[in-house]
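Entry:
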Amino acid sequence: PARQTTKGEPEPGMWVVKVGGPAYRIGMGGGAASSRADDGIRVEDKTKAALDFNAVQRGDAEMENKMNRVIRACVELGDANPIVSIHDQGAGGNGNVLKEICEPLGAKLEVRAINSGDHTLSVLELWGAEYQENCALLLRPEHVGLFKEICEREQSPCCFLGQVSGDGRLILHDELDGSDPVDLPLDLVLGELPQRTFSSDRRPNALKPLVLPAGLG
């Protein structure tokens, strides 16, 4: 039904959840890399493209289907749908989608709770990798069990990163050393920004009538 397309608002205590495939060293700066005009390097007087393979994103069709089945199962529950809000992960990876999903209330998250397929990933890589087939969503605490059951049935990984805080800050904690690599007031990046006005003038087109050569047709 149409009401399943309307996202709810974050509330303190809601769980911030990721569903889908694990993080890898892929899509590092992928959104920015795809927009660069020229990254050529001079090799033997010839310009060759400098390929940044870590920026290349890799698809995983099997994982995408598993994740989509989880979302579909939730939607098909109708008014009992446990998903309050959901965002697809894209450019910027976790560093973008997680701040959007909890805006404007903020959240405190644990970076080591991110599902990772590579134990050598740094905090920066876990935060910025644009790995595919992954979504962030909000759940109320009473729906955690149901959501886990659906993910287990569909064999789709899910991880619970933390909860909405209500203080307007996105805090990323690292339990390995007790640090907070990210402590960001959301109003600085997602607040009310001044709108830019663009002006355009219409120019009349002086079109000439179509004249066909004599004898044509």
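Residues 42-50 have pLDDT under 50 and may be disordered.
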